[in-house]
Amino acid sequence: MAEDTARNNLFASLTKRKKHFKRKRKYAQIFEDAGYVDLAKKLRDCEETENKAMCSNCGKSWWVINRCRQRVCPLCSYRVSMQRAAFMEAMTHNMKFPKMLTLTMPVWKEDPRDGIKFLRESFAKLRRHKLFSKVVGGAYQIEVKVKKYGFHIHMHILLDCPFMPYQKVFTAWKGLIGVGCPQIDIRAVDDPKGKAYIVKYAAKSADFDSSPETIVRWYYATKGQRLFATFGKWYNAKIEDLDSEIEIFKPECRCPYCDEEKTVFLARDGPFVFGGKEWAEMLRVLPECHDTWRPIEIVRKALDTNTDQQQIMEEFKDAS
After folding, report:
1. Which of 89, 153, 61 is nearest to 116 (CA)?
2. What is the pTM of this model?
3. How far apart are CA 98 and CA 93, in angstroms?
4. Least confident among 63-72, 79-88, 94-103
5. What residues pair up with 265 in beta bridges, in sequence order?
6. For residue 154, which phi and psi values (nearest 5 degrees)?
7. Mean pLDDT across the stretch 181-191?
8. Contacts of 7-15 spanning 24+ positions with Cβ under 8 A
């Protein structure tokens, strides 16, 4: 069954990702202590629990791994950055003159959300400058790092442009942000290794280099902010909006049993999909859908004990 394969793959990856699970749990406790109870629960449940999914056509149900899709989650953030990197790598294949431009500004000591807005607006003005007249398009990622006395907010831009004079860009950016000596960087690449390098930096999703104690400040700074966007030739490209913090599970379009499209929903949402009275009637013939959530015991045991993973796998095989 597909759900068993997904669960086993998740368990098999624990050896490499155990430290990220532990960081996720630590973040959950920090957020709970700070009063973000709902967020803490989402983090704790992420990839350690499953939700029941159903098909409205055939009535079959199955379990799906719960993922929180929060920027502050080390597991989900990494997945988003990998998906984004794949998209941006595909962009470089269609670029004649791929470059990465990095724009910075001094440490922002006021509300970081205003700093993000100021950086985005300043870049929009730079794009209207004649220096950008030859830019075909690209994508940018805003990175926010928590510092002792403020926030280091900067931008990595992947773009396609035949020539971008450093001194002129420096002068234009200096005038836009009103700083005497801002730091900028322009790198041109035409080999696969160089492209991989700029994609890596342009696709970074979250700041996990800082101490865990700063994560609440980072969350406040970035919550609800659009940090990734495409422009020019790639504006409004038909890709999943990876920057959105959407519901825990986005159902697949097809049922794995009857292969019908757009009939899959989470059992917990049954009353909203069908109405309370009709859903109650359905539960009489579908009693298995009373349970809509459960922990992934094999994963939690691996995280909470020092038992050998192979031994845990054998124990759960015997139990099933």
Report:
1. 153
2. 0.82
3. 9
4. 79-88
5. 54
6. -145, 175
7. 86
8. 7/50, 7/63, 7/65, 7/296, 7/298, 7/299, 8/313, 10/47, 10/65, 10/296, 10/299, 11/298, 11/299, 11/302, 11/309, 11/312, 11/313, 14/299, 14/302, 14/303, 14/309, 15/309
My answer on whether 100 and 197 are in the same domain is yes
Q: Give the three-class secondary structure for 223.
A: coil
pLDDT-derived band at 15 (thresholds 50, 70, 90) equals low
CA-nearest of 18, 103, 102 to 301 is 18
* Residue 224: strand, helix, or coil: coil
| Rounded alpha-carbon distances, angstroms, from residue 105 to 175, 178, 219, 241, 299 | 12, 9, 20, 27, 43
Domain closes at, from 205, 232, 259: 232
Q: Is residue 46 part of a domain?
A: yes
The answer to whether the CB of 67 falls within 8 A of the CB of 248 is: yes
Q: What is the pLDDT of residues 209-250, one digit of tens each?
A: 667 778 999 999 999 999 988 899 888 765 444 344 433 344
Residues of the domain holding 99:
78-232
Q: What percent of the chain has pLDDT over 90?
A: 46
pLDDT, residue 240, reads: 46
d(CA 156, CA 159): 10
Q: Is 79 exposed, middle or buried (0-12, 13-18, 19+ CB in 10 A)?
A: middle
Q: Is 44 helix (H, G, I), strand (E, B) or coil?
A: helix
- Beta bridge partner(s), residue 294: 50
Tokens 């054998």 sit at which residue?
314
Q: CA–CA separation, 309 vs 311, rounded Å?
A: 5
End residue of a domain, out of 199, 232, 265: 232
Q: Where are the alpha helices (H) located in the chain, listed in sequence order?
A: 2-12, 14-33, 37-45, 74-93, 112-127, 166-177, 192-202, 215-222, 270-274, 276-285, 297-304, 309-319
Q: Which two tokens stand for residue 315?
A: 């124990």
Which 3 state secondary structure label does DSSP give 101? strand
Amino acid 317: pLDDT:
54
**Tokens 């035949």, residue?**
162
Q: Residues 16, 206, 91, 115: what is their CA dihedral angle, to the nearest 10 degrees?
A: -170
